[in-house]
Design goal:
With 188 residues, the chain is an alpha+beta fold. The protein has 5 helices and 4 strands. It is 42% helix and 12% strand.
């Protein structure tokens, strides 16, 4: 879940050194109560803490390799044939480009973003590993965007984001330097 303006929560959590610390944040139209449950020391994470994640990722990579090699060996020539073989169905995703962050129904799949931007039209792309599965793609159409790059608007956006971050960081720095203790969370 993405929460607009939540960068200050993440910054606080990363910089907080004391386990169990609680802090309240008022963000546009919402209030966030954050708590530090675990503090990890700087440096390389211990193997036992990341072993499950590594094992899961390696397992997924091996499964994808096996699925891709099995499908490639069958020399399938259409999306329907692949769908039948994978006991799945053909689906169409629209409005995907190279910068799409989240594809509806699939999540973050940069492999599909790259195919949408650069794969040849109306050509069956062989099975490829994505974050959530193995995909076979056929790009049906590609439309050139009509919006033009507005350098001034981008510059203004970056400057306003930087001004906001500077304001929030300066407030946090002052609180730390002056050792201000915020007890408002007790009352809410």
């Amino acid at each position: 879940m993405q929460i607009p303006g939540s960068r200050q929560v993440v910054t606080w959590a990363v910089n907080e050194k004391k386990m169990g610390t609680v802090r309240k944040f008022d963000i546009t139209n919402m209030r966030i109560i954050a708590r530090v449950d675990q503090v990890y020391p700087a440096g390389v994470a211990p193997l036992q803490e990341v072993a499950t994640s590594i094992r899961s990722r390696l397992s997924n990579d091996k499964k994808a390799e096996k699925i891709i090699s099995d499908l490639t060996a069958k020399n399938l020539t259409s999306l329907d044939a692949y769908a039948t073989e994978m006991q799945s169905n053909v689906d169409t995703v629209k409005f995907v480009n190279f910068t799409t962050r989240n594809i509806t129904g699939l999540g973050f799949e940069p492999t599909l973003n790259a195919f949408s931007a650069y794969a040849p039209l109306n050509t069956l792309i062989p099975p490829a590993k994505g974050n959530m599965g193995v995909y076979v793609v056929n790009v049906l159409s590609r439309t050139q965007g009509t919006e033009t790059y507005d350098a001034k608007a981008q510059k203004d956006l970056i400057q306003s984001n930087n001004a906001y971050m500077l304001q929030m960081q300066s407030l946090e720095t002052l609180k730390k330097k002056l050792k201000v203790e915020d007890n408002r969370y007790v009352f809410f």
